[in-house]
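= Protein in question =
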Amino acid sequence: MEHVVVVLSFHGREVTLRCLDSIVESNDNVHPLVIDNGSFDGVLASAEARYGDRISMLQLRVNEGFTGGMNAGIRWALERGARFVTVLNNDTVVMPGALERLAWSASRVEAAVAPEIRYLATPDLVWFGAGAVDPVTGVARHLHVDEMPPTDADGIRHSEVLTGCCITASASVWRRVGLFDDRYFLNFEDSDWSVRARRIGVPLLVDTRAVVHHVVSASFAREFSYLGLYFYARNGLTFIRERTSAGVGGEARFLRRHLLPHLKPGGARSMQTAMRNALVLGYAVRDAATGRFGAAPSSLQRHAKGWATQ
């Protein structure tokens, strides 16, 4: 297996099948590995019926988060001798030639490479073309079109951070940098990985000639909106403290700019939602301070599930 593409699915059967369709139909020289991250929604049976031995499948018994699920796939690929491994969000559609192009770019200078990622609904608009760490808050962000670094003759530009939506690297780079930090579970794991890569001299590149379309949702759905806020807050504080020089001031600015607005009722946010967000952020700040990582606390998961039905 020269190049394994890891696609992680969690309660996303139809979305995942659309992604796999785009990979298989691209005729790129890659081997998809689809992982069911503990959802048991029939995605693997459907994938096997549709693609047969053109893909491989892996069933996880429980939800291991983005980090645990992708790490299982990366390990699977490395153990089977893959030269390149791509992690790919299941809510993407790959353009023909993109995956082969990413492997080519990753092999030139032993780099980690992301494609230019465009909105599926509006493909003229770029969702990710390069990223940087905000020196004020310490949070990674996508650069605007007018901020993009220049591209070279091959359409390659440098980036401070990559998005976990799609990253391609050689087996040797994955081994040097290591896998995603399982403590994060979900959110900021790509920023953490990017900083670790740059610190050991691995270039982070965006190949603008490799294009992937992404279904970008405005928020997590219902109960996951609360859990998403929890992971964003807990992991953001952790990332700033461990991987940036922003210090306590950066954590304070992150709280003020990115978290406190969730506590203000107004618009579509009711007083009830604001109060629930306050509870969520209380969990997040406590867990970031005490070093409680991994999945969200079971009590918070129960709250989120109950709120989703109200």
User: Anything to note?
Assistant: Residues 218-223 have pLDDT under 50 and may be disordered. The chain is about 45% helix and 20% strand. The CA atoms of residues 10 and 37 lie 5 Å apart.
